[in-house]
Amino acid sequence: MRPLEGITVVSLEHAIAAPFATRQLADLGARVIKVERPRVGDFARAYDQRVRGEASHFVWTNRSKESLTLDLKHPRARALLDQLIDEKADVLVQNLAPGAAARMGLSYDALSVRKPSIVVCDISGYGGDGPYRERKAYDLLIQSEAGFLSVTGTPDTMAKAGASIADIAAGMYAYSNILASLFARQRTGRGAHIDVSMLESLVEWMSFPMYYAFEGAAPPVRTGAEHATIYPYGPVEAGDGGVVMLGLQNEREWAVFCDQVLEQPELKTDPRFVNNPARSTNREALRELMRERFKPLSADQVAARLDAAQIANSRVNTMQDVWNHPQLKARDRWREIDSPAGMIPALLPPGRKGDARMDAVPKLGEHTDRILAELGVEAAELAALRAENAV
User: Fold this and answer.
1) Partners of 344 in the β-ladder
2) What pLDDT, on the 0 to 100 scale, is given for residue 197?
3) Average pLDDT over residues 21-47
4) Mean of the per-residue pLDDT values of the chain
5) Residues involved in catalysis
6) Number of H helices, E strands in the chain
7) Which runs of consecutive H residues, i.e. helices, occur in the chain?
8) Which residue, among 52, 13, 6, has the nearest Cα to 31 in the 3D structure?
């Protein structure tokens, strides 16, 4: 039995944050009913066509769900949503436009009156109150607001993260808070209201840069792929043009690095490099010194030296390298799931193995007839609703 079997989640979701949270609930066995607009669906379905005609974002965040189409502007469709929540839902998740769910009577305050056990999770850019509550928010904008762009990139150019980290952060906090609320409900019988903002989620992730700049101190500078305050920690160039990432964490490792990798033990006592603050201050000199020492070596040879010295390192993988990563294959982390595009690979949820749910990515409206039949909708009414484009 999976941990969340018997739990039903109704989600008014689109894009990444809410779908990522609910997909993880589905991974644990929850029944997730994804409510989508008729004919159009979650707009993330149209982001691209990179997965045999399906969108890369969508197939990643929506496996193991049921797709129910409802036009929530249609009175009968709206009533069916209320019935679905009242009869089936343990959890309601929504990341609609600011204020939209409340205007439909789907706030926790409204729903908990008739269903005290319900858990309602609202995911938004800035949260349910405060001066920014009505502002639209997208991942790049939140990366900017949270200060992420100010510390990411090169000294000359800021850079956004290559993945939707603000959405992912919000999805993770929604997921963990929903699990905690369900656990608490077992003891109290009461549901909960969860208000997750993308801004607060990403600011939490800003971690040391914020404390580094505490009380008006200078913030970390943008250092590309290098660490802003630890050195050497980042890319080193080999003579064949290859790049190896390495990371030194303490003075013991620095001594080993000087002895076994650079083969220059005298650097251990060089005043420019005697400790991490000195190395970070003098990183240009040390970078040039490493470049010269590694010029006769290939990237593989540099990595071999680092491995022999037990200095942490990695190669800079492409996406294709990750698909073929030997560690993921050795740990049997890939599975095949069905989708509208046919069978595609999917990574097992981290931490799960044999009990993870890995069902199909749904077609738009694939489960509408079955779910509405559960609510007592007869075939004739369903046909009439479909003729009105209500479902």
Assistant:
1) 337
2) 98
3) 97
4) 96
5) 227
6) 17, 11
7) 17-27, 56-61, 75-88, 100-103, 108-114, 139-145, 165-188, 198-205, 207-212, 251-256, 276-281, 283-294, 299-308, 319-323, 326-330, 368-374, 379-387
8) 6
Q: Which helix (H) or strand (E) holds 313?
A: strand 312-315
Q: Is 40 exposed, middle or buried (0-12, 13-18, 19+ CB in 10 A)?
A: exposed
Contact 137, 210 (CB under 8 A): no
pLDDT at 354: 80
Residues with Cβ < 8 Å from 20, sequence gap 6 or more? 61, 167, 168, 171, 172, 175
Domains of the chain by residue range: 8-206+329-387, 233-316
Whole-angstrom Cα distance, residue 125 to residue 136? Answer: 7
Interatomic CA distance for residues 322 and 259, integer angstroms: 33
CATH topology of domain 233-316: formyl-coa transferase, domain 3 (3.30.1540)
Task: List the CATH code of the domain at 8-206+329-387.
Answer: 3.40.50.10540
Strand-pairing partners, residue 158, are: 153
Residue reference for tokens 């904008």: 141
Q: Are strands 192-197 and 119-124 parallel, antiparallel or unpaired?
A: parallel
What lies within 8 Å, CB to CB, of 113 at 6+ separation is none
Residues 259-304 pLDDT 10s: 999 999 999 999 999 999 999 999 999 999 999 999 999 999 999 9
Which pLDDT tens digit goes with each residue over 338-390? 999 999 999 999 998 888 999 999 999 999 999 999 999 999 999 999 999 99
Exposure of 336 by Cβ count < 10 A (0-12 exposed, 13-18 middle, 19+ buried)? Answer: exposed
> Strands across the sheet with 119-124, in order?
65-69, 31-36, 8-12, 91-94, 119-124, 192-197
pLDDT at 34 over 90: yes
What is the pLDDT, as a whole number, of residue 355? Answer: 86
Backbone phi, psi, residue 83, to 5°: -65, -40
Model pLDDT, residue 166: 98
